[in-house]
Fold each of these.
Amino acid sequence: MENNSYILMQRYELGRQLGKGTFAKVYYARSLITNQAVAIKVIDKEKIMKVGLMDQIKREISVMRLVRHPNIIHLYEVLATKTKIYFVIEYAKGGELFNKVAKGKLKEDVARKYFQQLINALDFCHSRGVYHRDIKPENLLLDENDNLKISDFGLSALAESKRQDGLLHTTCGTPAYVAPEVINRKGYDGVKADVWSCGVVLYVLLAGYLPFHDSNLMEMYRKIGKAEFRCPNWFSPEARRLLCKMLDPNPNTRISLAKVRDSSWFRRGPKSKEKEVAPAGTEVSSPSENNMAAEENEESGRPSNLNAFDIISLSDGFDLSGLFEKNPLNREARFTSREPARVIISKIEEMGKHLKLKVKKKDHGLLKMDRLEEGRKGFLSIDAEIFEITPTFHLVEVKKSNGDTLEYQKMLEDMRPALQEIVWVWQGEQEQTSQEQQQHEQEELPQNQPQL
Ligand code: AMP
C-alpha cells in the first residue's frame, strides 16, 4: 500500500504513508468526490481487539466528534470493514512540530505562537470535559499555514471516566512528558496533568531538548517527581516564571490554564489569529441568508426589510431553523422591539460599553460586537442585525460570528438584562424551553456507540 495507490470504498484514493502509531498507520489520501486532501488512519481491528483496546478506539471517535476547534485535527468520518477501521481526518500538511524542534530550538515568538494555539485548544477541550493525556510535540501537527493542530486522542479521557474520587486512574502518556502524580499512580486530575505536559512542551520548544532526561528511567522519574530541571540562560525571566508554575510537582498548587493565558509571557507578542485559520465546518457560523439579503439591499445604513417568507420562518410556529442547525447552543437569539432603529442602536452601543465589547456599526443595520480579550476559541464576535418590519417595529437577530459557543451563551445571558428596556418579546422563549426538555430526555437515554 505504501507505493501503489489504493481506492477505499470507491471514495478515497490512498497514497503515501505519513506516519505510524502503535496500532495504526496513517496515509495521505484524496477524496474522489470532492478532491479534498485528507489523512486516513488505518487501524487493524484484530490487533486492537487482542489487547482489549476497542473501547479506547470508540472513545477516540466520541472525543474527536466532541471537540471541534481550529487547532484540533478534525474527524470527517469513520469507515469500517471486517478487518479494519478507517478514520478520515484533516490532513496536516506541515507534519509534526517535533520535526521543527528536532532541528533546534525555536525563536521565542515562534514558540509563543504554537504555545498559545496549544493552550487555547486544550482549554477548549477541558471546557468540554475532555483531557488529552498525551500532549507531546509528536502529537502536535502543523497545517499548510503553520498553525498547530492537536492530534491523537487515543489516550484522551472523558470526564465520565473519572472514579468517584473525581480522579483518573490509568497511567498513560509518554514518560518524559507525564506529570509526577501520573507516575505515582495515585489518581490524578486530567486538567492538571495536561498543564504539566504543556509545560514540558514549552520547555522543549524554547530549549530544543527535554527538561527531564536520563538514560536511567528510574532516575528520570525521580527528576520528574521533584521537578528537577534547569532553564538555559537564553530563557527570558517571564518564560522561566511561567515554566516553574507549570512544572510544579504538586498538582494542587500547579497553575491553571486560565492563569497560564493570563501570564505576561503568554500575552506578550502577536496573538494567535484564529479568525483567519478557522476551517470550514467548525463552529464558526457562516453568513445567513438574511445577511446576504442585507448585502443586496442598496440603501445602506438602514435596517434591512424582511419579506413574508422571512417573517413566517422567524415566527415561533413556523420556525424551521431546527431542521438546519446541528448545534442548538449555537443558534441565534431574536427579539422584537417597538423602538425606532436609532434607539435600538444606541442601546446596543451602551450595552457594548458596559460588557466591554467593541461595537462597530456596519451597513444595513448590522452591528458587530467584538470582545477585546481573546477567548478559548479566538476572539468572541457577535453580530446584531436589525430588520425593519415597520418604522417602529423591528426584529433584532443576535448571533455568534466567531469564538467559543459557551462564551457566546454566557455573553447572551449578560446581554438579556442589559437590553431589557428595548425588548418587546424574545422570540422562541417557550419553544426553546420545550426543546431543552426534549434534549434533556434524550440525554437520559443510553448513548449509542458507533458500530464498528
Ligand atoms: P498517530 O497514530 O495519530 O500518532 O499518527 C502517527 C503519525 O502519523 C503522526 O505522528 C504523524 O506523523 C502522522 N499523522 C497523523 N495524523 C496526521 C494528519 N492528520 N496529517 C498528517 N500527518 C499525520
Note: The pocket of adenosine monophosphate is lined by residues 18-21, 24, 26, 39, 41, 73, 89-92, 96, 138, 141, 151-152 (CB under 6 Å).
Amino acid sequence: PPLAHQLNLDDFALSARHTLSPKALAYYTSAADDLITHRLNSSIFSRILLRPRVLIDIRKVSTETTLLPGHAPSSLPLFIAPAALAKLAHPSGEQGICTAAGSQGIIQCISNNASQTPEEVVADLLADPSNPQRLWWQLYVQADRTKSERMLDRIHKTGKFTAVVLTVDASWPGKREADERLKNTLAAAADNSPTFSASSGHGGEKTLATEGGIGKSLFAGQDMSLVWSDLAWLRSRTKLPIIIKGLQTFEDCVLAAENPHVAGLYLSNHGGRAMDTAPPAVLTLLELRRYAPQILGKKPIFVDGGIRRGTDVLKCLCLGATAVGIGRAALFGLSGYGPAGVERTIQILREEIEGGMKLLGVHSVDELGSRHVNTADVDGL
Ligand code: FNR
C-alpha cells in the first residue's frame, strides 16, 4: 500500500509479510521456543493502564529528552535498537535506517552483525562534518578478543559513535525454529548481506552457514566466557559510555548500576529471541520499583521489546525508562519503502507519543511518573 495509508506499526508489520523474502521474514519475526516472551512483550502493555489528568493546558508539549548525560538531546524518548542484517529488508540496509533516524533526530544503534560496515553506515555523515547525527554501536564480544578490539578501533576512528552497547542476553543462541526450518534459502540471504562478516568481526566468511538458521550462524565466534569483571577490559578499549543490554532481573540491574564502568542499563529480552519465558522489560522495571528503587534515576535506563504504540512508550517512561527502543518495527518500516518507511514509522510513534502526553496532561517527558499508570493487574507477576 502507499506509504500514506500506513497508519500504525501493525500496518507495516502486515505489509512486510508481502515484501520480505520468506527467509528474511522467518529470521526477522522468529523468536525462541514457544514465543511466550515474544508475545508477552506486546500483550503485557494491554494490562497496564494509563491515568489521564484533565483540565491542564496542553498547548505546549515537548517530547525532547536526553539519553545520556552530556549528550545531544534526542527529539523523542525513542531509539532504534540494534538488529542484524537490515539489507535483508531493503538494499539501503542500516544506512537507510540511519538516514531516517537522522532526519527524525533520534539515535540508531548499529548491530555488531550489521549487513554493512560501520564506515558504510556513516558514509554520509563522514562526507558532511557539519551533520550532528550520532549513533551507538552494539558489541558482541568475540572469543578472539582482538577482533572486537579491532572493530572498536574502527568505531572510534569514525568519530560518529557516542556509546557502546554490550549485549549480554544472547550468550547462547535462542532456539528460533521458524528461522531454523527455512534452511534451503540461506544462499539467497547471504547474497543480500555480503559484508556482514566484516562488521561482525568473525573473519573471512563470505556466506552464512547453511545449518541451524541465520541466528545460530551469526552466533559463531562469540565469547561464551564473558563475565562482569571483563568490563574492565572493555573499559580499557573504549572511552565511550558503556551500556549493558539484556538485563532481565533486578539483581543484575543492581550489579550494573553499581559497576563504575557502566553508564546505562538496557532492560531487554532480545525481542523474545533468547530465553523464552523471560520477563518483558516492563516487569523488570516493576521489579526495580519494588526491590531496588534506589536504582531508579541513578543511571539512564533503556528498554525494548514489543513496542507497537506511543502508549507503550509512555508506560515504560512512567515506570522509570529514559528511552525506549524499537527492533523489528524499524526493519518492517524499511522493508518495501526504504528510509521513507522508517521515517514514517518514527513519525507515527512521534504523533502517538505527543498525543498521548497531551491526553495524559503532561508537558515534558520528565513529568511522566508512576502516578500516570495503574499496574495493579501485573503487580503480582
Ligand atoms: C535483534 N536484536 C539484536 N540485539 C542485539 O543486541 N544485537 C543484534 O545483532 C540483534 N539482532 C536482531 C535481529 C533481529 C532480526 C531482531 C528482531 C532483533 C534484538 C533487538 O535489539 C531488540 O532487543 C528487539 O528487537 C526488541 O524487540 P522488538 O522491538 O523487535 O519487539
Note: Residues 27-28, 41, 81-84, 111-113, 138, 167, 245, 268, 270-271, 273, 304-307, 326-329 surround FNR (CB under 6 Å).
